[in-house]
Design a protein that fits this description.
alpha/beta, seven-stranded parallel sheet, five-stranded parallel sheet, 35% helix
């Protein structure tokens, strides 16, 4: 059995878990505060939320990210994870992502894999999780490493390339003369206002603007057909959004949003250095949009193949399968003789 902790912020962590689990023959149990999708037919542990407006010593003196004292939700949440580990004795625990869940699993003697994230992860909490992990899996290519990692992290990182729920789906032909801009802001929060979008559209009357997510737009569960017909996608620099653009091979304007540890800005820097997307550090002014779209449309979308080879989930599954088997072998080796 493999335990897979899925963070509840946004949709990307869950999409990634489902993609990887589809390639695993070992049973997978998801532990999450997200609502269980109807399509998930494996075991699922519902975790209570541990949010609070007035946390007390939430970082344990800077050593953790979120562990407020005397919080019933946190206590119940960690207790459920611990009870599951004690009951199931999993061969492996995947954290995507929680320092506290990873640490708890390792304290209970379970090998841990942590989903790596870009940005400055040199704080004490991230160092703890990355140091104790048996392996890190990085959903970006080896050709675009995160700079500044210590050697012992680099030694155990496995670069899978981007992981998208659309990697195996056929791409329909893109309209050759299409002039559609698709804005994909996702479910993890946005720095863009409705007025920003209206001004950009007004400044580019020869483009049709379609908005998926974000201010004034409903959530689109399956944006694949829209991505595939777009001439340009405007999106943030979240790992999942970038993976979906890469799977669709669609030229993109990437505008990183504010996230802890500078995660999205780090991803944007990697994309800019590789020449894979048109990166704007902030939302462009209305008068800048015609030029921005023209530059983006001139980029060959097939360059996304450098970021996403289409088998990222399979590579991650191979990593987890190997580590889970190694854990079972260790267990057998220590048994009665």
């Amino acid at each position: 059995m493999i335990g897979y902790y899925v963070h509840h912020q946004g949709k990307g962590h869950l999409h990634r878990a489902r993609c990887i689990a589809a390639h695993l023959t070992t049973p997978v149990t998801v532990l999450s505060s997200l609502t269980r999708p109807d399509s998930w037919d494996g075991p699922w542990i519902d975790l209570p939320l541990d949010t609070t407006a007035r946390p007390t010593d939430a970082t344990a003196g800077g050593r953790l990210h979120w562990a407020p004292v005397h919080h019933a939700g946190l206590r119940d949440r960690m207790g459920l994870i611990a009870d599951w580990i004690r009951r199931e004795a999993p061969a492996l625990f995947v954290s995507d992502v929680s320092v506290e869940a990873a640490t708890l699993a390792r304290l209970m003697g379970t090998p841990v894999v942590v989903a790596a994230m870009r940005g400055d992860r040199r704080d004490a909490a991230h160092r703890l999780a990355y140091d104790l992990a048996d392996a890190l899996f990085a959903p970006w290519p080896r050709s675009a490493p995160e700079p500044g990692w210590p050697g012992h992290w680099r030694d155990k990182v496995h670069h899978t390339g981007a992981i998208s729920r659309y990697d195996a789906r056929q791409r329909p032909g893109r309209p050759p003369d299409g002039r559609e801009v698709v804005v994909m802001l996702g479910g993890g929060g946005a720095d863009v206002t409705g007025q920003d979008l209206a001004d950009a559209a007004a400044a580019t009357p020869d483009w049709k603007w379609t908005v998926l997510g974000g201010p004034g737009a409903g959530w689109t569960e399956d944006p694949w057909p829209v991505l595939c017909r777009a001439r340009v996608v405007v999106t943030h620099a979240g790992q999942n959004a970038i993976a979906e653009c890469a799977a669709a091979r669609v030229p993109a304007v990437v505008i990183p949003q504010s996230r802890p540890h500078g995660e999205q800005h780090a991803t944007a820097r990697a994309l800019r250095a590789a020449g894979l997307a048109t990166v704007c550090d902030t939302w462009p002014s209305a008068r800048a949009w015609p030029g921005v779209l023209a530059r983006a449309a001139a980029v060959d979308g097939e360059r996304w193949g450098l970021w996403s080879s289409g088998d990222g989930a399979l590579r991650a599954a191979h990593l987890l399968t190997g580590l889970a088997a190694r854990g079972t072998e260790r267990e057998a080796a220590c048994g009665p003789r």
